[in-house]
Amino acid sequence: MNDKVFAKPIKKQFEFDEEVAAVFDDMLSRSVPFYEESQEMTRFFVLKALQNGGIMYDLGCSTASLLISIAKQNPDVTLIGLDNSEAMLEQAGKKAHAFNVDINLLNADILEYDYEKANVFVSNYTLQFIRPLVREELVKKIADALKKEGVFIFSEKVISHHAKLNKDLIEHYYDFKKKQGYSEFEIAQKREALENVLVPYSEEENIKMAKNAGFSHCEVVFRWANFATFIAIK
């Protein structure tokens, strides 16, 4: 289904409800620049980390596209997707059934969940929705749950602390969205809905957060304007 969520006036903040879940895959492909390319890179690193088996967690797994693609390429690993949106998990379950893959989908709070020792954690545009006061606590919890040399791959919107550059990056991104068929009204509506819900960090702040949490190394492996994919190694 095509994303038309913000084609009408909104009266609430953004949330991952039934309406969003139904069009989420289309929303991602048209709202996140080079989404498929960043996901292909994520799959590469995940499969490398799981080549001898192991456990992977996808935090905020949404409709489980990444987990399904991993399961199709390596069915002999334990894949666990966590999300607190029942609507997203319902869509994920339907897709997993259609592709006949074995993945574990759980309605859970990623801040409170009791993680097993794992080889890989992935978080695609999820940390930015976690309140800054507890975001670093979550990243530390992830680091603690990873095995030695385990990896945490996360993608985030990022900001620049240079005011003019940040403004220009946002303008460039909105131009991208217009080319994907979104109207100025839809762009403005979504921006308003995400106000105070999505709180991005800069590239440097994300790297510092990972290192403070216990990762030995963290760097950007993919970036387009104000979207970045990071890999952190324990």
TrEMBL record:
S-adenosyl-L-methionine binds at Y35, G60, C61, S62, D83, N84, D109, I110, N124, R191. Residues 58-150 form the Methyltransferase domain. It catalyses: prephenate + S-adenosyl-L-methionine = carboxy-S-adenosyl-L-methionine + 3-phenylpyruvate + H2O. GO terms for molecular function: carboxyl- or carbamoyltransferase activity; S-adenosyl-L-methionine binding. It is an enzyme of class 2 (transferase). Keywords: S-adenosyl-L-methionine, Transferase. Its EC number is 2.1.3.-. It holds the Pfam family Methyltransf_25. CDD domains: AdoMet_MTases. InterPro entries: CmoA, Methyltransf_25, SAM-dependent_MTases_sf. One of its GO terms (biological process) is tRNA wobble uridine modification. HAMAP family: Cx_SAM_synthase (MF_01589). Belongs to the class I-like SAM-binding methyltransferase superfamily. Cx-SAM synthase family. Catalyzes the conversion of S-adenosyl-L-methionine (SAM) to carboxy-S-adenosyl-L-methionine (Cx-SAM). PANTHER family: CARBOXY-S-ADENOSYL-L-METHIONINE SYNTHASE, TRANS-ACONITATE 2-METHYLTRANSFERASE-RELATED. This is Carboxy-S-adenosyl-L-methionine synthase. It comes from Sulfurimonas lithotrophica.
